[in-house]
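ok trying again, last paste got cut off:
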Amino acid sequence: MSHPSTAQMLSGGAIAFFVAVLPGTALSQTSPNTVPRTPVLRNNITGPRVGESLDTFRYTLGAGDVVRLEVFNVPELTGNQTIAPDGTISISLIGAVRLEGLSIEEGAALLRSRLERFLVRNIVNLSLVEPRPLNIAVVGEVNRPGPRFLTYFRATATGRDSQVATLTRALEAANGVTSRADLSNVQVSRRDGANGRRLLKINLLDLLEKGDISQDIRILDGDSIFVPRLADQVAAQPRPVQNSTFIPDSFSIQVALAGEVNRVGSQTLLFTRQGQAATGLQGATGTAGIAGQGGPVTITRALQAAGGITEGADIRRIRIGRLGVDGKRAEFRVNLLDLIVKADLTQDVVLTDGDEIFVPKLPVQNPSEYGEIAKATFSPTSITVQVVGEAVRPGSVTLRPNSPFTLAITSAGGLTNDADWRAVELYRLAPDGSLVRRNLVADLNLPPSEENNPSLRDRDVIVVRPAFGSSILNSATRFLGLIVNPFSLVRNLFNN
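nice, full thing came through this time. structure:
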């Protein structure tokens, strides 16, 4: 009885193969012959083209992939191999076989055709054991633009878990999108074989607002992701975007403030989702946004970080300079008086990195508005008033904004027995630089009123003169300069 030769044993048969799917990665393949591809233009253009629908996922092999080759009844050819940097694997019978750029089905078919003449039962299985990191680029309105390596695995306490390499994961890898990102028009440039590249347009707002998971497409090696900028410079991101997983848990922006704020210059503002965070210059801490909850970096938070506005600030016409999509700096205005009077939250504009804020001076002050403005979150949290003369504890007094005149007298310990409480003088520096004086009665029982017990402002000076007939020696010693030239004394206090 003759036995078949080895060559006869290694010839003929049919091919069968399977694709091993990693748990959770959804790497199962679809045949290009049975599933229609998104139609593209067939021409010689090598630049991106826009498809009419989302792309069908098709994993292609490349350098770094770990694959398993199983040849039926030939253990010498069975085993795991890593695709070499030149895109090939090595098989003893046939040498190097180039798998780069092929799907797993195409790779298995190629191996079958190359091994067919050596096999009796031509059963070749090719499976993907461990995908390579995907080399992609994420640019545009993301916090860390540039090339990225996106993996299918993440380290856990029990080993490694598989993950789908999706668009949202790619954005997370770029440290999330900025507050100026247009998520309704994210663009993915993808290789399309001999046709060059084509462009997929993704609407991630549909994912966040409608739960359309098809928008979170799977990312392939070589994809380039572009997140454009919002065309409307004043537009704020919807709340679902602000709370999404691809907005970073913390980030910082740098803005510049000038004009009627207490600390002009550059400010570094930090955002955090969790509780306490620095809100102004690095090292200054406080609650970020809504107490204990975090929040967007808005213009009111920037004014807080700058020590609040001055009493001469014109909050109706605050100007914000911002770079537009054309690279030029445009300017728009906000009216914070509408925010505190009408509760118009649209005026509390969300800031972006590089914004320039200018708070102009109010041409004519309106005392009736000062009380409302003083209670605003972007006004200073305290004011300093000087009480000089016949007070029990003369000197600087720290008060809440909009405090009445009599509260400063009380905070200074009240008046001495020598004080002339019927003729107390209040000095205030006007916006034009002139010094304004008012004569008031220090009756501690007076209710607050702009006429008799006015609200105090930062750097006000209260002068309490000695009453006629009081100790001449004490008065002469303590108030000689004040009696001779009271304006000179008050101006020195303002300059200090």
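cool. The chain has eleven helices and 24 strands. The longest helix spans residues 472-484.
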